[in-house]
Amino acid sequence: MNDSLAATAAPALFTLTTGPVNCYPEVLSAIGKPVLYDYDPSFLEHYQSVVLKLQKALGISTMPVILQGEPVLGLEAAAHGLVAPGDRVLNLVSGVYGAGYGEWLKPLAGAFHEIRVGYDQAIDPADVQAFLAAHLDTAVVAVCHHDTPSGTLNPIAEIGKIVQAHGALLIVDAVSSWAGMEIDIEGIGADLLITGPNKCLGCPPALSILTLSDRAWAKLEANPKAPRASILSILDWKTAWKASEGFPFTPSVAEINALDAGLDRYLSETPEAVWARHALTARAMRAGVKAMGLTLWATDEAIASPTCTAVRLPEGVDETLLRNRMKQDYGVVISSGRAETFNALVRIGHMGPTAYPLYAVLALTALGGAMGALTGKPLDIGAGVAAANRVIQG
Amino acid sequence: MNDSLAATAAPALFTLTTGPVNCYPEVLSAIGKPVLYDYDPSFLEHYQSVVLKLQKALGISTMPVILQGEPVLGLEAAAHGLVAPGDRVLNLVSGVYGAGYGEWLKPLAGAFHEIRVGYDQAIDPADVQAFLAAHLDTAVVAVCHHDTPSGTLNPIAEIGKIVQAHGALLIVDAVSSWAGMEIDIEGIGADLLITGPNKCLGCPPALSILTLSDRAWAKLEANPKAPRASILSILDWKTAWKASEGFPFTPSVAEINALDAGLDRYLSETPEAVWARHALTARAMRAGVKAMGLTLWATDEAIASPTCTAVRLPEGVDETLLRNRMKQDYGVVISSGRAETFNALVRIGHMGPTAYPLYAVLALTALGGAMGALTGKPLDIGAGVAAANRVIQG
Amino acid sequence: MNDSLAATAAPALFTLTTGPVNCYPEVLSAIGKPVLYDYDPSFLEHYQSVVLKLQKALGISTMPVILQGEPVLGLEAAAHGLVAPGDRVLNLVSGVYGAGYGEWLKPLAGAFHEIRVGYDQAIDPADVQAFLAAHLDTAVVAVCHHDTPSGTLNPIAEIGKIVQAHGALLIVDAVSSWAGMEIDIEGIGADLLITGPNKCLGCPPALSILTLSDRAWAKLEANPKAPRASILSILDWKTAWKASEGFPFTPSVAEINALDAGLDRYLSETPEAVWARHALTARAMRAGVKAMGLTLWATDEAIASPTCTAVRLPEGVDETLLRNRMKQDYGVVISSGRAETFNALVRIGHMGPTAYPLYAVLALTALGGAMGALTGKPLDIGAGVAAANRVIQG
Amino acid sequence: MNDSLAATAAPALFTLTTGPVNCYPEVLSAIGKPVLYDYDPSFLEHYQSVVLKLQKALGISTMPVILQGEPVLGLEAAAHGLVAPGDRVLNLVSGVYGAGYGEWLKPLAGAFHEIRVGYDQAIDPADVQAFLAAHLDTAVVAVCHHDTPSGTLNPIAEIGKIVQAHGALLIVDAVSSWAGMEIDIEGIGADLLITGPNKCLGCPPALSILTLSDRAWAKLEANPKAPRASILSILDWKTAWKASEGFPFTPSVAEINALDAGLDRYLSETPEAVWARHALTARAMRAGVKAMGLTLWATDEAIASPTCTAVRLPEGVDETLLRNRMKQDYGVVISSGRAETFNALVRIGHMGPTAYPLYAVLALTALGGAMGALTGKPLDIGAGVAAANRVIQG
């Protein structure tokens, strides 16, 4: 062990977390641009161009909305905006974030239901179908696409199709999946999808990105309880994208500059290429994890997210000691679990600038090396890296 | 006129607004630092050190709170947190922002009152005294220190003394005055003061800074309606400054790095020196405005803020044409009025990096030059600049 | 006077010098990009694209050369490369830089001649004509376009025509004029022109830019004394622009990134627009200088450079005291004279990011204010600024 | 293989070269600071403080000199300055750079000698001793400490002792070793040592750093051929470090700002800690190389530099194909050999920001993976990484 090397107090050399992730160099250059007055006509034009670029990146026909706070703001705002008094609401729970969203939905709903599965599993669309058939007046369904504390995906395309056929409005939390994998937002019928620039787009955390269908806008406008003149209001920002309109309050200028650079990077690299390297990195990581004799958290590898690999902690391994050791000996910082998954798993993010397969090699070495050092039973790091490399060499 | 020179579409050369202001170079360098994971021990330590530095800059004995949105979030959160059901609330209105704050307070209050003066005047402390004597059960008083759309100050020291003696809690909006002039936060008895880094501290807009007295914390904790598990919650962030605690949600890492640099600059230059150059710049500006034959907005120059000079628009001068002309011919962007003061005045900010007296010269030239060009009646720019220079040369 | 305001030890608020100038914001963003290995294929491609962009900005048909040191390197290298043993060389001297160049040329030449005029005057093309007619074997003529320590221009178009007709090779020092005014490099017959990014292109000082005619290349290749395998070699870099070739030694990667951004800015704003604002700024400055009762250094205003205004120091005004006072009271830094012009004049640069007319106002105020404060005899700053403004309002 | 992943045309993800290396984040932040006028008193003070900091980092009692070009300038300047007409000069050659230096020394020397060993070996101090005993009038000895194209070290302490005892002046090229390992500059008797910020200090390439003993200064001053008034002059810069003196020409302001940040990083991390991680990284790398069945270039591992690992290319492996494949499949860029070592070896730098042991893992994977893919005979990457990890876990 090397005391002199990397005290846990030093900044990470490699931030391989599920967010905040470090940023693309282009983004770090752009965020330091001079800060313009929000009503400077050139900033008004700039803001409009960023929203148009964002619309293109999202692949939607309506105008997206940027809220001035990290995605937790978008999620809270979505619940307050879309759930009207008396609404019957179905929340789908396959993890900590899905469960947490219920805490916001429940007090707003007239009737509140949940479908729950184990946190290492995914929602079964058939259960949604059955619920909706039994509750025809369901107004809103909420689903978390990638429940980050579990690293698992829900089948939003299938769920979306069912909800769309039924006529309820669908809220999708796609914070940590969007821009790391393909999401056909309108195709799956997402009425209000929340994401952010601070995961797979490689920007800092400070903004929410929301897409709304025409039905979602209509619901918001009709909802007397939808926040207005508030930080929680989506409605206030509906026309803010137009250079001819003002802002309800000052947008986060530097973060908008960062988002602009993140979008340029995403579009110029092409979304398809970005998704491909997220998928490749995750495949290399999972192959290595298994080859080292460790176990993925997801009971079915098919639901493991391309943007995050959750690894089940072996009996007796303390996650804090493990992550401290990884930082101290290797300079690598990864994410812990949250709530029910805390101390049950650790997570390696594959997001934006870290979605390159060599980062999987790096994570495998640090994970295996630190775990072996902690337990005194060395893991076969070599097997792990070799397996990852076979995926890389395809 | 020079078409080729500076189309209104080009970014401003000189952003002399009342916020967002451009940032200090130190801040623009710092905001592009690598973004760390919020639970990286080195970020936890960093966050704690920033809050401690902030406490020092604020000159208070309690720990300040950073909320993750520009000061409008802090203002909304303060109202929701400090006003409990049934509270009698007094709101002091000497401008657009004071009036706007009443819109948030009113629905939260049991009984709601306002003292109003003209938007070019300041609240008379005697009126506050009289009101409180007549309404002994008043629980909360709110005052805007610098009502930015008017460029005018309220006498918060005197008001604070009265409120403190009475026992009500005092909310102070010091967003655009703090760090540009001395505010003895605890001395004046501010229980919940809201400010931000995006004005006189020369940072970008994306964070709120709040100071709370022990009484304010007690009120929040006792208030069943105070937001919890919400972007609007102050309580959620009470212990977030401790490196040993977590965050309720991801802080805006890049903006924290920027704030850190802004605080370093403020403290190393010394607050006294910073306040002195704000005051000097404003004095130079006001001398020049008067020498050019224009009129200050404030009826009494003593209430004109050192952080902003509001100039009454002469009859027949359209503010949009004027500001466009200033940008086109001089590359200078200043602020318009808001609501009732829109098209009645224009405002030049003296905040942080623009609080140097030569910026007053620059603003005078652009203001006088553009107005003369628009009206066909040249102003005596020379007299304005000479008057400003006499102030500079003291 | 304000001690607390701006100690001379603090960095300048406004660097209005003749170089180094502060940089465009785009340049400061770009210089902090990750530093690539010079043989990384993506850097090789990048370098080629920068040289091609530079060729476009220069408006020439041959490939320019970048040397890895500020323009003094280019100037020294040009002398060593173009002057062969035995060459008859004519050096034209209208200022300190022209005279200094002779120090390099003289020991390299077979026969060395100079035409000299007062340092506030320009070379008369007729004198060049007469000299060449009398010395038919003259091989090289050297001229400084903008002799920066005097702020004066030589008529290079006329001189170039004469030299071209004669058949000698022409060296042109255009370090501080290029990119601030039109120079038809091939039209005037410049065989080896030296400039740099650190003046009117708004980049930092660290690179030389050279253009060579085919005749210049032929001379270099034939010259046995032309430096090879040396920092002073131009030949070493002849093919370095090609992505398929290597570099003789490591180029200054960060500075190349900065140059790239400076060129983007220049080309996107359009050279014509850039030249126009340099000219306008200089006209405003000169009008103000005269209106304040000061005297231009150039005996004939027609030879005053659009990139620099040299102001004759009144009797008894010490330039160091004056410039210190300007910095202390106004935060403005300007350039002193050099050698023979030291303490005889001061110079305000209009270069790149400072070539906007409001900077003239700022310089006039600081110059006039400081001089008045020093001498106890206030200058009419008002008249100066008003005159400048009349030019701005055109 | 992944076409979509990392075209060779994209910038490297991981620049693991022997220089230019990518920079520390602190350096990339600092290089974008506003560019000050070199004669701004605050820059003069800053320059002095940087040279004093540099002196501390170098651990010397004389004042170091910064030359304004990457270290090749310092090397050329040293030869021209220290070799006087008629001098007997001994050049020690154990690699391409040592041999190249002879090309500069030879034409300057009265008598010129070389001691040569194979490029995978080190100079034997006994041979130096023998030479000097046989040539008592030897005036100058030159040695390359780390001959980068071979990744090998010469025993400069032993050589220095011998040269010092003899009385000749010793030139040491420590460009790619200094700041990555301990060098007792005065202890070993280096009279003129050349290094730079662009290797182990983690700054961009654009400056040379020179240390001179009093004897070296005396020699320069006495040498009529030592360059003066030239980019090649060391003498011109002798007093430039003093804030009270001027500069012979404009220093590279942005690069000085970068150097300042690199020195801060080096001194605050402590040189000992920096050297330790360079050594650890190289040890991990060498262990992995051998475990994968590859061969180090150095015939004796004891002479392998801690700042670079040179790996012998197996028969039939083309270095260009190999390095392209490493970039394409892994995003990793390493250095090729030069001249005689080209296509005989490849080199992985361990310098500054890449001198952390996980970078060795990363390099091993990319090197082994690409070589296996190219040859069709997979290397045992697992064994390589495991061996590296055993070193890391020490």
Automatic annotation (TrEMBL), chains A, B, C, D:
Pfam families found in the cross-reference section = Aminotran_5
GO terms for biological process? glycine biosynthetic process, by transamination of glyoxylate
Q: Is Transferase a UniProt keyword of this protein? A: yes
The family this protein is said to belong to? Belongs to the class-V pyridoxal-phosphate-dependent aminotransferase family.
Q: Which top EC class is given?
A: transferase
Source organism phylogeny: Bacteria, Pseudomonadati, Pseudomonadota, Alphaproteobacteria, Rhodobacterales
- Origin organism is Pseudooceanicola algae
Instruction: Give the UniProt keywords, A-Z.
Output: Aminotransferase, Pyridoxal phosphate, Pyruvate, Transferase
**Where are the N6-(pyridoxal phosphate)lysine residues found in this chain?**
K199
Signal sequence residues: none
Q: What is this protein called?
A: Pyridoxamine--pyruvate transaminase
EC number(s): the record gives 2.6.1.30
Name of the encoding gene:
ppaT
- Listed cofactors: pyridoxal 5'-phosphate
